[in-house]
Amino acid sequence: MSSKALLQRFATWRSTQQTLALATVIETAGSTYSKAGHRILISESGDYQGLVSGGCLEGDLAAHARKVMSTGIATCVTYDMRDEADELFGLGVGCNGLLRILLQSLSPVDDYQPFTAISEVLLGTETGLCGVLVENPADPGLAGKSLVLTPSHMQHTGLSPALTGALTSLCMTAGRTAALHRFTHDGHTLQALLAPLHPVPRLLVLGAGLDAIPLVTLADTLGWRVSVADHRPAYLAREGFGAAEHTLCAPAAELAQRLPLETFSAVVVMSHHLATDRTYLQQLADSGIPYIGLLGPQARRERLLQDLGAAAQALQGRLHGPAGLDIGADSPETIALSILAQIQAVSPPAAELRSSTS
């Protein structure tokens, strides 16, 4: 399940002021459905958003979550399927791996921290990092205490100043993938999961033709936040753009003034109008958007690049035209699939958290 779907369900449950549980995969071994850093939410009724397995472990995990929600005490649950993958719960899981999961209570009393802080990063524009302490025999009460960092902000839940400093220093050594780390504090060896937080990706679609509708719809299904811009009001008024988070009707020349281009992970230029596409590309050349897709044949792309003159150099390495992977796409739906697959394939890795957070 996408981060976007998780955040939408969180907003719904949060509005009812019910207690929730946050389940975070903190360690895996062997073949598993999810990896360290993956999160799902569980409600008081046992309903859940997201999956840690193919659906076979979530019911049992919800039973553990109810206890955590009632006591407020975080705990770890381990599912070892390496020796009994065909017998576990009689469901024939077949994953042949181990999952260790931290369960934390999320209460309206403390504003659903730490997930509120996590959600703010996911809905923002800065890559962040979450450090969460796991069970420790020396001090069981430390389990679930968390720290959320971005280059411009830090927020923690239940940590002493000394432990905040120790965990912050540890975060500065974190890599780009979630992993458990051990460190010494006050004479004790503690464990913390350090997991990167990547904002929900944003896609900008420039052109609201009929072929843009499946692109917007599929991107939304995949968990992207989508904006659509066009200078033609009638195009934007068409049914089918309900999945777009934002629509903008403005002259192409005003794009950079009207939208914060640096917040987008990818853009697809598809106005089907040569002069309009040229104006869009002129402004995109000055942006840092890592993926710029252009519809149309190669000859059209070369003509546009020639018209752009010196600005074309700034598009090198970012402009993909014709947009999409060569999968034999021959319809708006399959073209949309090919474009989103290409974005997924060439999307650059998120930058590591910079030391400016310290």
Can you describe what's shown?
This protein has helices spanning 3-15, 58-71, 115-122, 161-171, 212-221, 233-236, 255-258, 274-284, 298-308, 332-346; strands spanning 20-30, 39-42, 48-49, 75-80, 97-106, 128-133, 146-150, 153-157, 179-185, 188-197, 202-206, 225-230, 246-249, 266-269, 291-294, 319-320. It has 358 residues and is of the alpha/beta class. The protein has 3 domains: 15-109, no CATH class; 113-199, no CATH class; 202-346, NAD(P)-binding Rossmann-like Domain (Rossmann fold, 3-Layer(aba) Sandwich), CATH 3.40.50. The strands form 3 sheets. The chain has a 6-stranded parallel beta sheet, sandwiched between helices. Strands 3-2-1-5-4 form a 5-stranded antiparallel beta sheet, with helices on both faces. A 5-stranded antiparallel beta sheet has the order 8-7-6-10-9. It is elongated.
Describe the secondary structure blueprint for this structure.
Blueprint: H1 3-15, E1 20-30, E2 39-42, E3 48-49, H2 58-71, E4 75-80, E5 97-106, H3 115-122, E6 128-133, E7 146-150, E8 153-157, H4 161-171, E9 179-185, E10 188-197, E11 202-206, H5 212-221, E12 225-230, H6 233-236, E13 246-249, H7 255-258, E14 266-269, H8 274-284, E15 291-294, H9 298-308, E16 319-320, H10 332-346
Parallel strand pairs: 11-12, 11-14, 12-13, 14-15, 15-16
Antiparallel strand pairs: 1-2, 1-5, 2-3, 4-5, 6-7, 6-10, 7-8, 9-10
Helix pairs in contact: 5-10, 8-9
